[in-house]
Amino acid sequence: MGPSQLNSSNGPQSLYRQMLPAELIRFKQKGQSITILTAWDSLSSSIVEEAGADVVLVGDSLGMVVLGHATTLPVTLEEMLHHTQAVGRGFTLPLAQQPLVVCDLPFLSYQCGEDKAVAAAGKLLKHSCASAVKLEGAEPEILKVIGRLIRMGIPVMGHLGLTPQAVHRLGYKRQAQDPLSQEKVISQALQLEQLGCFAIVLEHVPEVLTSRLRKKLAIPLIGIGAGEDCDGQVRVTADLLGLSKKQPSFIQALVPGRQLCVEALQDWIKQQHQKGEIPTKAISQQELDC
After folding, report:
1. Which of 176, 245, 218, 199 is nearest to 100 (CA)?
2. Can you give the pTM of this predicted structure?
């Protein structure tokens, strides 16, 4: 069920989104799976909106998908704001029926203290369509930041397991494979819930951990490469459509999108070449004028 089905009020349309971040907790209580897709511009957001995603994540994965970086680390707050604004311009449904938009806080926008994090998150919510932010990790310093953001009225989605902003420490390997590290993830997730996070993304961990954790949390657990026993799934849209140059090992493309696009464009280029030279003719100024 997408937002357009969820919001069926016949009354006057609210100026605000009817689907608040906390609404996802009701999804879990009703046993309704949550679907989250990434978007990075107006074209991708119009596609995922039309597809019926419940949530659109403007992820810092755009650094790799769109900007050509090897990691998410170079992405700036200004770039996240720029792309989130573009995502908002791609929506066509009435405001109250649009997907919930969550925006990643990029590297070094929240690791340097609470004040800087509040300013960064506030800027995104104030100047874009985002209604919430996502932060990676649950170290003591990050927990303080998350608590401050939530007290300031900024909804927060947590992110545990493989956290791409810690790539130089963790790599892109599966996380929490031993009992001790799994207990640590469970403890961190419970702390995030206690602070007031409305959902947690769990990335690239064993499914046994996901299953255990989902039963312990009252808030939704959103998986990516974490098995099927989650309250919802999040995917990088480019990966699902097979557009990425390098496909993550734990995500299977639905269609060979990159191959289809390249072959279609090759066919068009071939057709143009086969036409040969087009004879030139004199064109009057009247024909040139619009």
Report:
1. 199
2. 0.89
